[in-house]
User: Fold these one by one.
Assistant:
Number 1:
Amino acid sequence: MQGVFITGTGTEVGKTFVAVEIARQLTQRKVTVIPKKPIESGCIRQGDELIPQDALALKNAANYSGSLSDVCPYRFEPPISPVRAAHLANKVLTTEQLFSICLQGSEDGFLLIEGAGGFYSPLAENGLNADLAVALQLPVLLVADDKLGSLSQVLLNAEAIQMRGLQIAGVVMNNLNNNNNEHMDNTADLREHLNCDIFCNPYAKNGQPQLPKSLIDALVTPISPTAPNISAVR
Ligand SMILES: Nc1ncnc2c1ncn2[C@@H]1O[C@H](COP(=O)(O)OP(=O)(O)O)[C@@H](O)[C@H]1O
Ligand SMILES: [Mg+2]
């Protein structure tokens, strides 16, 4: 199965922003993208329906022919942790349920999954984002807010992904808050400690992301199952 599990160092770090651009660029390359955001809280109520904003953005960017429910069947209104939101709606969701949602219709395409929150944020009654990623056995793309303090966050996440036996597709240092301290260079500092690809997404003044082509190339290059498991964190 080809695809990527997009996670972040936390919430509001740019996972959707990056995922949407990946979906757009893959679609432009004629890759069939199957977007999934299996569970989303903070949905907007429109009449009787809850509209998941992330899932909708992914569906549009991927030009996905399936329904919004195929992308995101589990939707909750309160902008809180998905597990807590599910409880408030008297729902109990398991990792296995989210796993099977992710697999539905994924046979002939590139599965692009956005988790919720960070890698260790609870996602289901019995599991974290990490557990869904492990069930799917997809490479993980880590999106981080490029700011003072992110070095430790990225290294902790990279180690956690590695400890779960998953491949790191790359790290995206996302400058969403337009930090421009000329003396700071998190990407260069991380390269001293990480063996995986590290990409930069600059602040998008006009809302237009500038993800490097090499990131898209890396995502569509299949990882050989016999490739040695390189340690990402030195
Ligand atoms: N590189 C960037 N430049 C400008 N704005 C950004 C950038 N990355 C993200 N944003 C904005 O930051 C906010 C949070 O990003 P989002 O992708 O929704 O985060 P997440 O999915 O991790 O919760 C959104 O309003 C998004 O448009
Ligand atoms: Mg999001």
Number 2:
Amino acid sequence: MDLILKVWRQKNSESEGKIETYPISDISEDSSFLEMMDVLNNNLIEKGQEPVAFDHDCREGICGMCSMYINGQAHGPSRGTTTCQLHMRSFKDGDTIYIEPWRSKSLPIIKDLVVDRSAFDRIQQAGGFISVNTSGNTQDANAVPIPKENADKAFDAASCIGCAACVATCKNSSAMLFVSAKISQYSYLPQGEVEAKNRVVNMVEQMDKEGFGNCTNTGACEVECPKGISLEYIARMNREYLKATLIKDKK
Ligand code: SF4
Ligand code: FES
């Protein structure tokens, strides 16, 4: 396949960026999108030009690093797919492909397609954990009975990979789908219930501090989420937040 790539180039967080045009040829339709980006970078290096900076790690849909808009869609045209799992057979010979970084004030661009996602780390650090006594008398987690429905919902929530496609897609730059998944993966389980109230309050507060917008229930995040995280978790997070704040002293 021969393609025209229109790629966002930006030297650093201070400089202005712009779209550069790169024709690319002989791309196999069996190669992945990131392999195509590797070919582009090899071509640029051979010409003595700066390669395009983009994030990636696992290339298996697990780490959530490969974030970019492809023709205006987070992670490209295929549903339930990260950029690293996207194949070039999703495009046609002669296509023009626009490749841009996530756009959100809370995820500032570091260089080219790489954004700073440390806001997500700080939200996780505010409560995305359970405290476990490791004295040697710790109960085996598998010995605690958990209803199948709750285990399934916790597992589904835990499949969030922190890619931030939800933020990038939301017109308000809301991080509520991400935060609600991270809260729900614990609150559905008895091990997570102990700190549930503090967790939801602290994580929501940190989310607000980071400048993410509010949810207005348009549902774009759910559509573009590569892991199919449901809006139902946002409703659950809102209920938990109300319980933890409004009625925290009543039993
Ligand atoms: S909720 Fe979905 S889109 Fe948002 S960070 Fe998690 S996996 Fe990515
Ligand atoms: S590189 Fe890890 S999810 Fe794409």
